[in-house]
Amino acid sequence: MSTESGSLHTLFNKGTLWRGRQTEGQSRPQCLSSGYPQLDALLPGQGWPASQLVELLYREEGSGELGLLLPLLAELSQQERWLLWVDPPHIPYAPALRDAGVNLDRVQVVRSNSRRDRLWCLEQSLKSGCCSAVLGWLPTGQEKAIRRLQVAANEGDCRGFLFRHSRCQDQHSAAPCRLLLEPHPEGVTVSALKRRGGWPLPPRLVPVQSAAPAVVAAEERKPKRTRPQLRLVGSRDEADSASH
Amino acid sequence: MKQTAPPTERDPLWLYLHFPLLALEAQLLEKGIAGLLDERGQKLALCSYEAGQEGLEPGMAIATAFSICPEIELFHPNPERLQQQLESLALWAGSYSAQVVLCPPEGLLLEVASMLHYFDGLPPLWQRMQSSLRTLGFHIRYATGHTPLAARLLARGGRSLCIEGKQAHLQVLQLLPIQQLELPAKQQDQLRGMGLLRLEQLQALPREAISSRFGTQLLNYLDRISGQRPDPQVCFEPPPLFQQFHEFSREVENSLALLFPLRRMLEALAGYLRQRDLLAQQLELILVERDGGHQQHSLGHAAGAADAEVWLALCKLRLEQVKLEKPILALQLEVERFKGQQQQSYDLFERRKQAEDPMDLLSRLRVRLGETAVQPLALSPDHRPELGWQGLPGRSCVVDKVLPKGRPGWLLQVPQIIAEQQLPPHIELLAGPERISSGWWDETQVRRDYYVGRWRDGRCGWLFRDARGGWYLHGWFG
Amino acid sequence: MDYAELHCLSNFSFLRGASHPDELVQRAHELGYRALAITDECSVAGVVRAWEACRGLPLKLIVGAEFNLDGHCLVLLAPDRTAYAALCALISTSRRRSEKGKYQLFWDDLADGVGGCLLLFRPGDDEHDALYRGKQLKVWFEGRCWWLLERLLDNGDETRFKQQQRQARMLDIPAVCGNDVHMHHPDRQRLQDVLTAIRLRTSVQRAGFELAANAERHLRSFRKLQHLYSEALLSETINIAERCQFDLKELRYEYPSELVPEGKTAGQHLLELVDTGKQLRYPQGVPDKVQRQINYELRVIAELHYEHYFLTIHDIVRFAREQQILCQGRGSAANSVVCYCLHITEVDPTQVNLLFERFISKERNEPPDIDVDFEHERREEVIQYIYQRYGRERAGLAATVISYRAKSAIRDVGKALGMDESYLSWLISRLDRRDRSNPWLKQLAGMGGDNPAPIYRQFVELVAQILNFPRHLSQHVGGFVISAGPLSELVPVENAAMQDRTVIQWNKDDLEALGLLKVDVLSLGMLTAIRKTLDLLSEQQDSPMRVQDIPREDPAVYAMLSKADSIGVFQVESRAQMSMLPRLKPNKFYDLVIEVAIVRPGPIQGDMVHPYLRRRDGLEPVEYPSEAVREVLERTLGVPIFQEQVIKLAMVAAGFSGGEADQLRRAMAAWRRSGHIQKYQQKLVDGMLSRGYELEFAQRICRQIEGFGEYGFPESHAASFALLVYISAWLKCHHPAAFCCSLLNSQPMGFYSAAQLVQDVRQHGVTVLPIDLNASGWDHSLERQQDQPDRWALRLGMRLIKGLSKQGAETLLAARPVDGFTSVSQARQRCRLSRSDWDALAAAGAMNAVSEHRYQARWELLAETPWLELDPEPVNEVRDEPVRLAAPDEQSDLEEDYRNTGLSLGRHPLAMMREQGILPRCLSAAQLSDCRHGQLVHVAGLVTNRQRPGTASGVTFVTLEDETGQINLVVWQATAKAQRRALLAANILQVSGVLEREGDVIHVVAGRLQDISFQWDALKVKSRDFR
Questions:
Q1: Which of A193-197, B48-52, C959-963 has the lowest mean pLDDT?
Q2: B220 with B248, same domain?
Q3: Are B428 and B302 found together in one domain?
Q4: From the list C153, C208, C888, which residue is nearest B433 (CB)?
Q5: Exposure string over C882-893, b if 16+ CB within 10 A, otherwise e
Q6: Is residue B20 located within the same domain as residue B156?
Q7: Domain that holds residue B445
Q8: What is the pLDDT of residue A114?
């Protein structure tokens, strides 16, 4: 999960990496690689920043939003602290998380009753110091709240990830890092809308695994095989339809 | 039994309490026709009083028991519960004696000679114990003895004896049947086979003759009974924290039904406090619900109290207001704050205040959002996808080897029907089918063929077709 | 399209496969498969059944086996006889390495290619290991190795399929498809899940991923196969199937050759042996009729090539005779003149008029069946002889397949569904399996209530499905298979639970189906008792006494039996038999044959007993619907009593062919197992109706067949047993002391305890003497009575003493002076016995002759022994001050007797209680005979027996014993239910009831039962207070 020195080197050469805080950053908790060199290249400090909010914007679930984070979550779940999911839109599916290497004993899922409770809950957990990462789903128009959450993340030395609809991209946000995700047949295209100490970058393709399941990856995708016959194996009129 | 000699101050005195049905009563919630099974689950090991009235008796095969009394409630032996209950009784006994000895599995030995002074003699002491015991609802056999063994043997032999004085006890012991001596079965046979039936006959024999036949152990044993040889005992040490846990053998739906086990706990608390010279100021009562959630009730007594009746009244007040939404599986009682009889009150749990404890955060969230608002994720070995993630906390029994592969990161709460116009070929099927047909034993049987499909916008979903041919979306590869 | 399924488990892969072999065969046939391989896990136990089911179908059966090793699955198929032998050997080796029920295969076992077996290899998930093993196997099984691809549509199926295809290409090993079949139809998924849960001792709710994800492991349709597999993979199955040419019928049994002397044929040898034998049997010359019969029998034997079979049995019996081990043959061929001449049986077939062709016949093509019973204490010698004579590798015991029955099915299925065990016990306790009007499965369904929970409904269905599923193999009680070559090339051999025993994987039906012969070496306690009695008599008379010397048809014996005086007599000593004897009043041997056969559940269920008795007593005319029927039924007065008669009836009255009748016989034997009997019943009724018999007659025969199905008793067995009945009755009648002594020396056996046998013999006027240090041996013995030297008294032996080691007793006997010991201390000085042995002797009262009483003896003997290892002269014995213990009173003495020897020669407890006035108004057993029928009586006695015979539904028979004899109680169901506790728990019972008498048979029909056991203890307190 370490950054590939090769790509790092390239980035230095290209001058895309902001070096100014490099030395200063040593004293702060280090950035953790995302596990995807292409993504790391987009992120300030070559990886997911610590003690900060990251905003992930996308249209609908299934846009690679989990895939991007899973390597990080797997890494963080080795710590003693919690990975808290606050009001995820669906069930974070344990077998998939485990398969990605996440230690499930560290994961807790919170269901709040109201928007107020949700913000309270996010703030409490971000600043508690008990969480290595807090994942939250926020509707549009929460500028003030986001500022408070950023402070809380800093205070509690916690990574905060806010998942928001892509239509929030034009709204102001206090999150130091904002990424826009769009599905792509071979992964996700990621655009950095905002990065502290850097300027927006053009979209980049990140080959997120979980968006294109292992089965598909293992197989050479030939054009003729793109559309399997839409019939169940064995047809219903047979005796063995009893099993189905 | 008339006392023959006036008791001298120095005569030691022990009281043995034998709870013959404890293994059963520790699991019972209320009186009724009930029985405890033996280890192999084939025969009755114990019967409640009510069951005895119906004609059931220990040793009976289950089938026979059922044919006599079909409504009998049966319990499996639970040695841990038994031990817990005995310890809890030992705490209770702390109200009456400073030296309590555990005699597992179902006996307690109390030193009472030194207590007579505080209770104005033996009869008042015993009277108070008896009335307290009556409220606890355990069957009991008891006897005093001038030695621990004398008390034990007389009690287990069913003597119901409450006297003082060495001579008086020795006299009673003479008539003790040898079969009640708790000797090895073979020795017992041999003694009976020589016509030796009562302790006095054995005692009348020459000592050398006994030891040459039965070894010195028997002699020593007899000497410990009579008191010619000391018999030191190891006293029960109450634990530093008071915490009691009672798991019900069946679900409880009426909050007032909790009072019966609660009383036993509070009686134990009273003994515990008495021994440590403390008062309790705040109790935490935790009711564990069926689905893993729990209710917590704090009960306070500003001045501090030790008496079981006081606390029971408080509990009753509280429980009357509580409505049980879900059945209760277990009950836990802790003392949150103690107060020394003279000292200021202090908090045993001060370290909890530190903000660093990760459990603290969760409790805070639970307090605000509700008990079930925070849930862990766990793997559950079930083929049905919707059941694959809700394990019991801390009990993920799936090894990675059999972990299903290629599952989506998001699972929809409820599978969502896929509209006609969306159906393939609009969705491109990338993999499948994976056929899952399982769960026929309960209401959530599934029979599905799962596929991975790509939507037009590039997202990948997990979809299935059910036995009726309908297509459903069940997850997203996020 | 053509397909052959090459990987298929039956339910003989215990608790894995969810279909019977015949179901798999039937389904494969319906689906149009060309061939089916039965490949149970390290086993061929199911193939014979599959092979039978294949008969007449165009489906080829392939024999194979599956092995699991390091996560890989290997399927071996036998293409020919050699390969089959190697497969059996491999299974045997793997099984023999492990404890019963398990196996252990090593890779090296496969290095020799397993005799040409074809190998299908399904690699595990470890790819590296798969390739490594694949390369190795390709060499070992050159040209005979396939990569087995199986698509079960479970998680990862697609990936795995592609990966394995790639592996096969890489290794250049051909691929073939299979379906890892566990069930014939996907319907069986639920049962399959339940089996998995049972195997893992858990419930389906908790079994999780141990259960299969779906129901795909079934025999699939062509359509489905074509969807899943390429044409090439499918056609490869046919290529493999075509290479498999082995058929189980090739397993021709080769008899051991050593039994025939060189230069002779088996037939010649048999003829010689019969010739020698007949001279012995008929010293006055062989009657013509007998000679004709011998010739006929020998001809049939020769035609069917059964010479070796008779020679084999003859050899075993010869050995037993040489060793003076009593034996008696029975079974369909045992009661032939040939067997009589070969001394396989003592039943003189001419005397009882049993005809050979009834038991063995060409047209029925039924292998001869001879069971030989040996003395139970000495059967092991015979078994060891067989092992020694033929070698362990050539002799083995047949298996018995233990299958699911009502109780085990309810228990296991219930547990697998997560039901509470005590609840299941309760369900079981409420079933009445004898109620024929309401089969127990229906009762079980009813217990779920009017609207049972879905899980309960499934429970009942699954219980019904799992019935008759094999659970494990056990050893047959004595069925030996002996072969010419190594047995393990014929059928795999595995370890039995008993040490040093091995069993083969087939049971006796399988052996029969393949035409393999087995020899049943069984044990019978009565033979031991008879031999011991004869030994005693020989000693008394100073001349050898043999079974043949017992006079036949002695009226005194029949008179005794007719009075139901039969305690200790073989077979007819049970309560049911005893109540039949006075009604049947046997007066000739054939009556005994009927007596043995008639008091059995079969005839009683079929309602045959009463018609027979009425006809015998002339109360009912004997009529035959036809002459043909008369021939079959005449000897039993028109009532079919024996299995053979039913078979014959099917032939003469319903027109069954010989072959059909044979099938009917098998179906009858196995009807509970297979349920095939119904189709025969219809055929039987139709056949009889069309031949003009009345419907009522036809239906009665059907009912009787059903009864026989469960408890069928053939005439040939009855005849052999009846002989033992006669012999034992004769011995009891004329030599009661010797007979009782031998019965006691042969315990445990029979129906009655030692105490009851002693009580009986004393009532017959025999003096019984107590165990005595100076007079008793280890065994019970006979002593000339001092006052009447011509009479024999029975001296109880030390074997009765609980806790006395045999070795201790022998030491004592060896050191006993001719005149006996004179004191306790002398005895202790003379012989070194363990303390517990001395204690046991004293406790039993055996030392009373040299001591004041048993208390004192025990006290003295328990003192530390003064023996020092090196000290030749014992030091002064009595060290401690003498203690005089009080003597036991009568009651204590009695109790100690019972406790330490199980019986007492003192006064009967009931006599003591009566004397104390505890039993007012109670009549003694002896007094009952003066009472009239219907009289209200009060009785009391020790409960010696409680019995719920299978025949009389709802009735419990209780036997009470008092000082004068036995009292027979009949407790009806309602009474039993109402007073269950007293009935089940009492040791001493007081009963008020109505006396019923029928001739000499007296019963008390119980009304009120009272447990008065406590009175005995009260008596003790009372008597003590008196002193």
A1: A193-197
A2: no
A3: no
A4: C153
A5: eeebeebeebbb
A6: yes
A7: 385-476
A8: 80
pLDDT, residue B312, reads 87
Strand C792-795, strand C768-769: pairing: parallel
Cβ of residue A183 closer than 8 Å to a chain B Cβ: yes
Given its phi and psi angles, is residue C80 left (phi above 0), alpha (psi -120 to 50 degrees) or beta? beta
Quote the minimal CA–CA distance from C248 to chain A in Å: 31
Q: In what order do the strands lie in the sheet with B14-18?
A: B100-103, B107-111, B14-18, B141-145
Tell how far CA B2 is from the center of its chain: 41
Pick C224's closest partner by Cβ from A214, A218, A240: A240
Q: Provide the pairing of β-strand C35-41 with B446-454.
A: unpaired
Domain count, chain B: 3
Query: In angstroms, rounded to a whole number, what is the distance separating the alpha carbons of residues B440 and B438?
Result: 6
Predicted confidence band at A198 (pLDDT cuts at 50, 70, 90)? low
Written as one string, the DSSP assignment of B273-304 is: HHHHTEEEEEEEEEEEETTS-EEEEEEEEEEE
Q: pLDDT tens digits, residue range B239-280? A: 877 888 888 877 888 877 888 888 888 988 888 888 778 888
Q: What is the pTM (predicted TM-score) of this model?
A: 0.76
- Name every chain B residue with its beta carbon within 8 A of the beta carbon of C155: 404-406, 434
Name the residue in chain B with its Cα closest to that of C207.
B381
- Match domain A28-233 to its CATH number in 3.40.140.10, 3.60.15.10, 3.40.50.300, 3.40.50.2300: 3.40.50.300
Residue B139 lies in a domain: yes
Residue C946 has pLDDT above 60, yes or no: yes
Q: How many CB atoms within 10 Å of residue A239?
A: 16
CA distance B367 to B358: 15
ipTM above 0.90, yes or no: no
Q: State how far the Cα of A136 lies from the Cα of A150, in Å rounded to an integer.
A: 13
Neighbours of chain B (3+ CB pairs under 8 A): A, C
Residues in chain A within 8 Å Cβ distance of B398: 98
Is the CB of residue C227 less than 8 Å away from at least one CB of chain A? yes
Strand, coil or helix: B128: helix
- Give yes or no: residues B253 and B166 share one domain: no
Q: Say yes or no: C218 contacts chain A, CB-CB below 8 A.
A: yes
Coil, helix or strand for A198?
Answer: coil
- Residue C511 tokens read as 């052996």
pLDDT band for position C361 (50/70/90)? low
- The single-letter code of the amino acid at C549 is D
| DSSP codes of every residue in C690-713 | HTT--HHHHHHHHHHHHHHHHH--
Contacts of C227 in chain A (CB under 8 A): 231, 233-234
Which residue in B456, B448, B452, B460 sits closest to B422, CA to CA? B456
Considering the domain architecture, whether residues B327 and B455 belong to the same structural domain is answered as no
Q: Select from A81, A161, A244 the residue whose CB has the most chain B CBs within 10 Å, as the one to mutate to test that interface.
A: A244
Q: Which of B37, B56, B205, B438 is most worth mutating to test chain C (most C CB atoms within 10 A of its CB)?
A: B438
CB contact under 8 A, A243 and C228: no
Do B361 and B293 fall within a single domain?
Answer: yes
Q: C9: closest CA among C51, C37, C30, C48?
A: C37
- Comparing B371 with C218, which gets the higher pLDDT? C218
Beta strands in C14-135 (DSSP E): 35-41, 60-69, 72-77, 118-122
Q: Cα separation of B93 and B90, whole Å?
A: 5
pLDDT at C366: 61
User: pLDDT tens-digit profile of C388-397?
Assistant: 888 888 888 8
Nearest to A234 among C185, C187, C221 (CB): C221
Long-range residue pairs from C136-141, CB within 8 A, at least 24 positions apart, any chain: C136/C107, C137/C110, C138/C171, C138/C172, C138/C173, C140/C110, C140/C111, C140/C112, C140/C113, C141/C110, C141/C113, C141/C114, C141/C117
> For the domain that residue B262 is a member of, what is the CATH number?
3.30.1490.100
Residue C506, token pair as written in the block: 């087939």
